[in-house]
Amino acid sequence: MSKIKFETTESRFTGGMFAHFFLKLFSNLFSALTLGIAHPFMVCWRKKWELSHTYINGKQLAFDGNGFQFWGRYMLWYFLSIITLGIYFLFFMNVGVAKWEAKHTHFAEVIESGKVNESADNTSYFDGKGYQRLGVKLLTLLVTIETLFIGIFWAETYLTKWQFKHQVIDGQRLHYDANGRQLFLRTWLWIFLTFVTLGIYGFWYSIQKKKWEISHTHIETEPEKEIEQTQGSFSLVAFLLVTFGSVSGFGLPFGIILGIIALVKHHSKRPFAIASVAVGALWIEIFVLGGLLAFLMLNSVPTV
């Protein structure tokens, strides 16, 4: 069985903390002051800066979209979201933004050579679907809740893998090779550094996370077809595990409420009250077990 092979040159993000912080602060502030009208322009501004400092396997990225192009689409998407009572936003808007940004994302060398969109091989796109993204978001949310937020690192990694898996830059698909355990350890290191520096390191948190994510992003040169064929069934197993955990978790409050009612209103039926509380405790065990199995499964299989 062949393996996925990648370019040997490292991936990195070279943006600095101060530029990242003030760029984000100013763009958010200006978007708010203009009641969101300038938001598309601020998004493009930040995207240009971000991609100009991003190197995937040694290849610098570039963004050729502009605010005027994005503004018209953005207003249309919001209008459709309003008249559909939010349905368009849930299923299409976020993916629409991802598709537009992906279309205007290229390797800097391709833009400099003037060969953008000359052939299908130089096409950039995002091929994820709205319903897929919604399903993945719900799945990761359930894993996070089921594991009492312990599994948030695995859930976040799963979502990131899905996003990069559907990203193609100038005919080359991306791959994200980090896992939840690595993100868990890194995050706690950043939290520790923030604590010992009395919160000062917190200003570096987002930029350090960005650098770490990009370092685990690569160009996929030989996709593993066997994995692509089996990933749907594995993801279905993970989904069923999360659903099982969710259904069992919903029984937890009923068991506890039943026990409290028995203790308050039926003092003579203490065995019944104890049994009710025991049922509630059993739901907790099933609740946590279902979540643990789910995020362990998500950490070990590819994305949908």
Write the layout of secondary structure elements.
Layout: E1 12-13, H1 17-33, H2 39-52, E2 54-56, E3 59-63, H3 67-83, H4 87-103, E4 105-107, H5 108-113, E5 125-126, H6 130-146, H7 152-165, E6 167-169, E7 172-176, H8 180-196, H9 202-215, E8 217-219, H10 225-265, H11 270-300
Antiparallel strand pairs: 1-2, 2-3, 3-4, 5-6, 6-7, 7-8
Helix pairs in contact: 1-2, 2-3, 3-4, 4-6, 6-7, 6-10, 6-11, 7-8, 7-11, 10-11
Q: Which oligomerization state do the chains in this entry correspond to? A: single chain
Average predicted confidence as pLDDT: 78
Structural class designation: alpha+beta
Radius of gyration from the alpha-carbon trace, in angstroms: 23 Å
The total strand number stands at 8
Terminal-residue CA separation: 21 Å
Q: What does the largest sheet look like? A: 4 strands, antiparallel
Number of helices: 11
Low-confidence sequence ranges? 1-7, 223-237, 299-304
Overall geometric form = globular
